[in-house]
Every structure is written in C-alpha cells, then in structure tokens.
Amino acid sequence: MVILDTGMAFEGLFLYKRELITELGINDTTVYTIGGAGNQPPSTAVTKDSTTFSVAAKVFTNQKLIVLKNDRFEGFPGDGVVGYSLFGRHDVYIDYDRSQITLHPPGKMAPGKSWATIPVYFKDNLIPWIDASIDIKGDQDVAVAMYIDLASGEGVELLLRDNMKFTLPESLTESYLGRGVSGDIYGYAGIIERLCLGPYTLKRVKTAFAPAEVRSKQQNADGILGNNVLRRFNLIFSYATKRLYLKPNTYYQKCFE
Fold first, then answer.
1. Cα 209 to Cα 24, 28, 134, 189, distances in angstroms
2. Structural domain span for residue 3
3. So what's the pLDDT on residue 50?
4. What Rg do the C-alpha atoms of the chain give, in angstroms?
C-alpha cells in the first residue's frame, strides 16, 4: 500500500521499508542521502532505475525506485508514496465519496459548472502551488502562497519564520506534528478562524504551526495545504492545464474539531 502524494516530484516510487531492498533484488552497495522534513540528519537510501510497477490495470514503466536503508519509518502505516507518476502524466480525479481514483488523459477533463476552478502553478520543481487567504483571529484576511501536500494529514500547516505574513493565534498547544525523511517534526497545534479557497470558505480550521526550516524545503512558502482540508472536496488535478477543480462532498460540512 502506498500513499498518494503531490509532494513527491519525480516519476517512480519512494518506499519506506528497508527489507524491500532484498525482496526487490536491489544492489545496496551504493548508498545516497535523501533529505526532507525533520530535525535530524537526512535518511540513507538505495535506488534502482527503469523499474516497472502497476496501479490497478495501469502499468508504469521506466520508473525510478528509491528505498530507505534506515528504519526511520519503522511502524509507519503503508509501504511508501507515489506522486508525479500519476499527477504528471494524467488528469487525476479523486472521489472521496466513493474512495476512488480515476486517471484520465492529460488536459482532457472538462468538469461542469458545479465544479470550482483554482489556478495551480509550479516553481522550481514539480510540486503544485495555489494562492489562498487565511484569517487567523477573525479580523483580517491575509493572502498566502501554499503548496499542496496530499500526504499531509493536517488541514493547514503554517510555516514559522522571522518574516511571516501572519500573526499567531492566542491559544496554541505544543505538539508533535509527525515524521519526515529527516526525522521528527515538532511545533504547535491551533485553530484559525477562516480559510478561503477559491469560492469556498472553511471556518475554524485545525492548523499546525511548524518551523519552516524543519518542516519545508520549499522557498517562500507561507504554508501547506493538507488532506484534512482537501478531503472535504472531490478533486481533479490537471497539471497539464494548471488547474485544480473542487466540488464539495459529504465531508465538507464536518467540523474540524
């Protein structure tokens, strides 16, 4: 089982379990360092090129395979993540109501008027960004640039640095926020009053606040949009047309608390 991850910006699979190195017959004499979120040194990994894997009936060829050599994700649910192999070569329809993903030819999806359209853009890599606005305390909307991390279980993650555009809520709780490729992530948990995403406004959004240097390697990001917001919509990612289509689903009205 692998997690669908818009933050994975290469074609292939990234696997956590080091026992897969032997099972997949990978030469482990050459070891690489793999950096990412976390407060510890980078992980070590081995790679294999020109791998083939399948998702249901869809076969992906000439894919890169990265397998961690350390045990940083021991006990973590799932075996790894897949990202750009799907998103970069298809329009991806994610139906949370039916727990179903459908792949379409790139640029061919034309949803009806019941779907909202949000422009998506890319910077130095293949990770999708959007512009949104947040209201921390219910008194001021602040425009923010966020990238989409479908593998994040948070609703919103706001990044703490010296030149932040926003102020912090009055009530925050110290929190363990999760684990990245470079170790654990600690920060704060809180609530922001409002998130405006295209024509939709979500209220009382559960939000994580994490040091930027630990949580994110993306320059000039104000925050990260995670799955606890995205799962409230059925989604169509179209990298080919640089659009994200949204339609509220049965989870839309559920309270974040």
1. 38, 37, 13, 6
2. 1-257
3. 85
4. 19
Residue, of 42 and 154, whose pLDDT is higher? 154
What's the pLDDT at 175?
A: 95
Number of domains in the chain: 1
Residues 6+ apart with CB under 8 A from 21: 28, 46, 67, 69
Q: What is the pTM of this model?
A: 0.92
* Higher-pLDDT residue of 181, 29: 181
Could you tell me whether strands 233-238 and 91-95 are parallel, antiparallel, or unpaired per DSSP bridges? antiparallel
Assess contact for 147 and 127: CB atoms under 8 A: yes
Distance between CA atoms of residues 96 and 2, nearest Å: 17
Specify the CATH number for the domain of residue 218: 2.40.70.10
Task: Give per-residue pLDDT as tens, 130-154.
Answer: 999 999 998 899 999 999 999 999 9
Reduced to 3 states, what is the DSSP secondary structure of residue 134?
Answer: strand
The order of strands in the sheet holding 80-82 is: 2-4, 80-82, 12-15, 58-68, 43-55, 32-34
Instruction: Report CA dihedral (187, 193, 197, 198) to the nearest 10 degrees.
Output: -160
Higher pLDDT, 234 or 42: 234
- Stated length of the chain: 257
DSSP 50-89: EEEEEETTEEEEEEEEEEESS-TTTT-SSSEEE-HHHHTT
